[in-house]
Every structure is written in structure tokens, then in C-alpha cells.
Amino acid sequence: MFVVSLHYVCELQEVEQHLEAHVAFLDREYAKGTFLASGRKNPRTGGVILARAESQVQLESILAQDPFYQHGLAEYEITEFVPTRTSAELRCLLEA
């Protein structure tokens, strides 16, 4: 499992121009089961994605398809972790 932290490196106005395409990218990855949760940071300096992937290399390849990445609008920090405890509602995130 991975936590992806995006940090905008441009004006928010430029991010807004590519937001629709970014949301379409997110929707595709949710449909594939890659992304489990996502949202904006507060204050709005970027976003966070909780993702499943076979490897960090595979996830990096997926993130390279994000319009925010393609247009150089954000930097991505990827943290891999192994969930060992969750609430009952998120038990499906525990890996065998």
C-alpha cells in the first residue's frame, strides 16, 4: 500500500485548468482498484492518494499518466507502508 502526497509547484489557477482531466485520471484508477481514497490538502497546496500497486515502480508508471504530472504542476512523494491495524470499516485494507 502507498500514500502519495502531491505538492503543487504552480499557481492554483493553472491546477484548475487541468482539474477535469485529473479527476478523469482518478476515476480510471478507482475503477481499476488502484486508488482507494484521495482528496485535497487543507490548505489547498496539493492532494493525497491512498493507492494499491504491485510495486513503487508500477505506481510511478501510473502516476506518470496524471495530467498534473504530465504538465509539471505537482511534485509527488510516495511512501510505502504495510497496514497492520485498521478500524472495522477498513479491515479490507489489511494485507495477508
**Regions with little confidence, pLDDT below 50 for 5+ residues:** none
Provide a count of the helices.
4
Compressed to H and E, one letter per element, the order equals EHHEEHHE
Q: Please, what is the average pLDDT?
A: 94
Structural class: alpha+beta
Number of strands: 4
How far apart, in Å, are the first and last alpha carbons? Answer: 12 Å
Beta-strand proportion:
25-35%
Q: Report the radius of gyration as a whole number of Å.
A: 14 Å
The shape, in one word, is globular
Give the strand order of the largest sheet, numbering strands 1, 2, ... along the chain.
2-3-1-4
Largest sheet: 4 strands, antiparallel
Describe the 3D structure.
This protein has 96 residues and is of the alpha+beta class. The protein is built from four helices and four strands. A four-stranded antiparallel sheet has the order 2-3-1-4. The two termini are 12 Å apart.
Concise account of the structure shown:
With 96 residues, the protein is an alpha+beta fold. The protein is 33% helix and 27% strand.
